[in-house]
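Morning!

This is the sequence you dropped in the shared folder:
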Amino acid sequence: MSTELQSVALSVPQGGGLEGYIQSVNRIPMLSAEREKELAHKLHDEGDLSSAKELIMSHLRFVVHVARSYSGYGLPQADLIQEGNIGLMKAVKRFDPSVGVRLVSFAVHWIKAEIHEYVLRNWRVVKVATTKAQRKLFFNLRKMKKRLGWFSQDEVNTVADELGVSPSEVMEMEARMSAHDQAFELSSDDDDAREGQNYSPAMYLEDKRSDLAQEIEQEDYEQYNQTRLLGALKALDERSQDIVQSRWLGDNKATLQDLAEKYQVSAERVRQLEQNAMKKLRSAMS
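The structure's back. Tokens below.
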């Protein structure tokens, strides 16, 4: 998307100007299905940015509607709308009119995804959801708590079954969401900090197990091993390197069948290549 279109998504005013922005976007006329399809084809087939702008502008009111449903997190409404607008831009860029659905149905997932990321980054200093299942638990639990107030054990089990997590994860998330964050260090404008009476956790928490020399030695040893591993990997042929990295070192681990299809060999042959490569690596590392 062009800089001009990006400015559309990043032009949500803060403070008192927000209501004026909302009134402005609500005055932008909605598109008919025929007009939307015509603009989407121009963008998709010809790269017409003026069509993209019209599609974005006509759906800004929908972003405001979605963003309002996240007001319970205590985050600035303008920021939520801004993030949602970025999701709308991404949706418009990827929208294929030949699929036969309206843009609003396609865009809602992109808008919510951007807002979800923003909420998780900013709602707490300590991240409360790092996996896909935990993120689903986080947002669904917030919704359920508003309705139920607190959970019985049966309700905990029901939530766990519905969201595919363990009851202990539900209880832990509920406890973390109910707690309040405390600053590890007092800010410089705090009264106690100015008076030299700092009672923040940073002043009285101590890790008796901490050994700075040992930690530095451990870091050096790990770095040394990593350097040796990289050197040993480079000594392998290109295919063996790819197999080891895909099977052991990547974020998304490949299966034997995935690599078999990639190299047009049997899964058993991939397993043999993997075993040979691992033997060479162990020999080099020893």
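Headline: The radius of gyration is 26 Å.

More detail when I'm at my desk.
O.
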